[in-house]
Design a protein that fits this description.
Blueprint: H1 3-18, E1 21-23, H2 26-35, H3 41-48, H4 54-63, H5 68-78, H6 85-96, E2 101-105, E3 112-116, H7 119-128, H8 137-146, H9 150-162, H10 169-182, H11 186-202, H12 209-234, H13 239-244, H14 254-272, E4 275-276, E5 289-290, H15 293-303
Parallel strand pairs: 1-2
Antiparallel strand pairs: 2-3, 4-5
């Protein structure tokens, strides 16, 4: 299949997705009810297409915001093609010429409404789908070799396509190793991958990721200690009294922070074969490498 044929196939897939049934979530329906104040499907279509209605643009964005389910249907095509900005502009133009209509399906058998799809919605969806973003061949190979099924492989590609990272050599190497060592355990893998992407988005592209992981672990440990101290203080004081004293009451979820520390340790062991027992947790102030299952279990017991 040529590049042009693949592009035409992508256009057909997008036409099918956008002009089919779009099942609205309760939150989108609530937003439209509270801002557009319409009583019928016809009024809804008119309100959404009204250029003078400042709320309509936001509603259109919410309606056509691509979720992972939609992205998964497109990923087999996107994984085989490299698009430029010029290609995306052409795709938007072709779709805009089709006079597409979507059927908006309301939850709980609330009926449906036919909506002509404006060009702005097509352009916004194309931008959010990150059509020009490609998965580096090293990561693609690691995905193909390590993930157990097509769904897992596609979902991993989607998460990386959506990630706000530069895909530097440093980041690529880190992600490849995480996928190879953890990809065959899907239940744990998604939690580790989501945390890894989140940390990559907050870290310089050329930074040492092991140091970044340990720095974030140290931050979480300190946050837990502050939250525990605040809990003790709150036992004998009201929040208002502490605020009057200028004391900042931490709102961190201690259990969630401990779970994140556990995942940091698992990522570190998976990618680097080690982690550190940081001084904030060690009574003796020592720092030791943890590289086997027994040591990891000890850390988890300490944090639980």
């Amino acid at each position: 299949m040529t590049g042009q044929q693949k592009k035409e196939k992508l256009v057909q897939e997008l036409m099918h997705l956008m002009s089919g049934d779009i099942h609205l979530s309760q939150s989108v329906v609530h937003y439209m009810d509270s801002t557009l104040a319409v009583t019928s499907g016809e009024e809804l279509a008119d309100a959404l297409l009204d250029p003078d209605n400042c709320e309509a643009e936001t509603a259109i964005e919410l309606i056509f915001f691509p979720d992972e389910g939609m992205q998964e249907k497109l990923e087999p095509v996107l994984s085989e093609i490299q698009l430029t900005e010029a290609d995306v502009s052409e795709i938007v133009r072709l779709l805009s010429q089709k006079n597409l209509q979507a059927r908006l399906c309301f939850p709980d058998q609330g009926g449906n409404a036919i909506l002509p799809i404006p060009e702005t919605a097509i352009r916004q969806m194309a931008a959010r789908l990150r059509l020009t973003r490609s998965i580096p061949c090293q990561i693609a190979d690691a995905i193909d070799q390590s993930l157990p099924d097509v769904h897992s492989a596609n979902l991993t590609r989607i998460k990386l396509r959506n990630a706000r990272i530069s895909q530097s050599d440093n980041q690529i190497g880190f992600l490849c190793e995480l996928i190879r060592t953890s990809g065959r355990q899907p239940d744990d893998f998604w939690q580790l991958l989501d945390l890894a992407i989140d940390l990559l988005e907050q870290t310089d592209a050329e930074a040492d990721m092991y140091d970044a992981l340990m720095a974030h672990k140290q931050f979480l440990i300190k946050a837990i200690r502050v939250a525990e101290k605040n809990q003790q203080t709150l036992a004998s004081n009201t929040v208002e009294a502490l605020i009057m004293k200028g004391i900042n009451v931490s709102a961190i979820d201690i259990e969630a922070a401990r779970e994140k520390i556990d995942r940091i340790d698992r990522i570190s062991v998976a990618v680097y074969g080690r982690t550190e027992f940081l001084s904030a947790l060690a009574p003796s102030g020592q720092s030791v490498d943890i590289s086997d299952k027994e040591d990891m279990a000890a850390i988890r017991r300490l944090l639980s």
